[in-house]
Specification:
There is one protein chain. Helix content is about 30%, strand content about 20%. The strands form five sheets. Strands 9-7-5-2-10-1-11-15-19-20 form a ten-stranded mixed beta sheet, with helices on both faces. Strands 14, 16, 17 and 18 form a four-stranded mixed beta sheet that branches. The protein has a two-stranded antiparallel ribbon with strand order 3-4. With about 425 residues, it is α/β, with parallel strands linked by helices. The protein has two domains: about 300 residues, Adenylosuccinate Synthetase, Chain A, domain 3 (Alpha-Beta Complex), CATH 3.90.170.10; about 100 residues, Adenylosuccinate Synthetase, subunit A, domain 2 (Orthogonal Bundle). The chain has twelve helices and 20 strands. Helix 3 crosses helix 4 and helix 5 packs across helix 6. The protein is globular and about 65 Å long. Bound molecules: inosinic acid.
Length: about 425
Amino acid sequence: MNACVIGLQWGDEGKGKVVDILAERSDIVVRYNGGANAGHTVIVGDNRFALHLLPSGSVRPDTICVIANAVAVDPEVLTGGIEMLESKGISLDGRLLVSQNAHVVLDYHKKEDHLREESLGTNKLGTTVRGIGPCYADKVGRSYAVRMADFRDLDALRAKLEKIVEYKNRIFAALYNSEPINADDIFDKCTVYAERLSPFIADTTEFLHRSVAQGKSILFEGAQGTLLDIDHGTFPYVTSSNSSSLGMPAGCGVPAKMVHTFIGVVKAYTTRVGSGPFPTEQDNETGRYIRDKGNEYGTTTGRPRRCGWFDAVAVSYAATIGAIDSIALMHLDTLAGLETLHVCRAYKIDQKETTFFPSDATKLRSAECVYQAVAGWDQDITDIKDFDDLPEAARDYVRLIEELTRRPVTMVGVGPKRDQIIFRQ
Ligand code: IMP
């Protein structure tokens, strides 16, 4: 059984926990998009793991982990992640494969990300400044790109880096009046990365197809969320990869028809970090309540997340383009204590009511939310294991989300720990 887990909002939906739970039944977990801009939190016992590049399955000692071709690999973050797990007694030796075709994020990408954001002032995108956009730009531009396979031939890499750094320095000086970077420094770091990471570099497409043929069960882990997808999200306030399930086949070389089930992950409310339209945003007491109770601060950047009500229009769109079969509804416990909850069931745009999400940022900004108000609940639900034991209002809330998204909610998260989840099927 192969499954794909996808965020249906603007990221941070709680995918790490869902993947970690499903990884128990999977032989292989695959990351196929994004890079160290992601922050997947997995809590095992008293240990809290913040994973940025390693698949969430990496905390399970027997799971094979694949970082596939479309991931932007920051070798510093990857080696740091491997060492962090080793320090907790979890080794990745012999069970991590990194695609030879994956593009590498180097210091000049992070510098470029930072300089561009600074220069945009109030128009900045609010990126994570992890060099993701500049790395993907070099991938598409081709002439100045570095891939994992380049770590296998250091002489050729040195020559390549000299050419790239000369080009980048011209841009840094001309556009940003910024200090040059040094090719030798970058190359020296690359020799260290090459030594550490070479044993993991592989043809992951070949490996995955061999695994499919052997009947292994594979879990595909999407990073970010569908609404941040470069083609289908709220452009330009998006990330630089296909973070919807549509990115999965190209991202790892496995066709979507080899995946048996697509699981969409949502929060019981909505959050967003960075700039961009957010129709259900509550920049008020309710938003602050959700942020504090749900600990809504970025795993990667620590930025406070913008918080708002559940947006069924946005989630239905994400579920539709992602061919989502079922929903994992996370953070239901966070809503406890709010007297009335609001769910956005339609938008009013140009005086007309619509339930189809416009990904066009200007149109979305003009959307007025049509809310359905429902009763909240006071009880702490963090110890509940059975759906029928939830307060009636909480059950009704889950059913309303099922009705509006036309998808069954098969998992309900009631707390951050691995066992704080209710399975319904
Ligand atoms: P970038 O991916 O760093 O270029 O950032 C582009 C946009 O995507 C910004 O609004 C980021 O806050 C957002 N973003 C990127 N990665 C994540 C994530 O893992 N969770 C939530 N938002 C993200």
